Amino acid sequence: MSAEKAFIPPDRQRPTEAPPAARAVSLRTRSPVTEAVWVRALLISVGLAFVVVFLLLPLVFVFVQAFKLGFGEYLAQLSEPYAQSAIRLTLLVTAIAVPANLIFGIAAAWAIAKYEFKGKAFLITLIDLPFSVSPVIAGLVYVLLFGAQGYFGPWLAANDIQIIFAVPGIVLATIFVTFPFVARELIPLMQEQGTGDEEAALSLGASGFRTFLFVTLPNVKWALLYGVLLCNARAMGEFGAVSVLSGRIQGFTNTMPLQIEAASKEFSRTAEVAAFSLASLLALLALVTLALKTFLEWRYADRLSSAGQSH
Known about the structure:
The protein contains 15 helices and no strands. The protein is mainly α.
């Protein structure tokens, strides 16, 4: 047999592959960004300008105006009876709406992700409804249902039950506008995880409640907390639906956003400081929520993604 290599036509020759090290260097040096440097700089500058002008400057202005007369006056305005009533009502409504949405979100996500049933697509559509309906329209619907001239109005009046222009109406409006947040965080994650862990736990003799408590809930705890934070932030800042149902009675049915509007309409220096003081407190609560949300995204992003990939 000849020691010479057999001739291979050029069209059938395999291309010579670069060594693995060379390929790695080539991949590292190849940038996916093809825009010119000035284009990237322009896009970054425009983005930063929008953030500064429309987010940071108004936020800084709120705190500057709130402390314009000093820290003592700031505390005095927050201690004023109407402001205290608004703060208490906001916290009360949030304390009712968030747990209610927590229970609903878990139940809806469990049903949608773990079971197949008729009307499943319709249920998902209903969960997304508050995202597409104006909060003012939602408040008007509740007025038409529970108001004095509404569908249930005469029966409620006969039984001395007041929903409109009272705390129950504010709670209903807040629950309506916030109930998608928890469910929408849980549904995709539960769908990715499937039912393998639950089936394994049930086959080993665990009850349904223990399976949920020790298998399902730990797998979704960070997404659940993330949804609760978003729900809490929206509940504290809701204005549209609450303004329709509350009657805007200072000291009784004014939440913090409504009290801010009421104080801003008095056109006095003290009322202006009062409005900005409440606004700064509401902004501070929102910033705390945002900080917790960012921390969860940074600290547990790998767990949230790997929880679905591991299944």
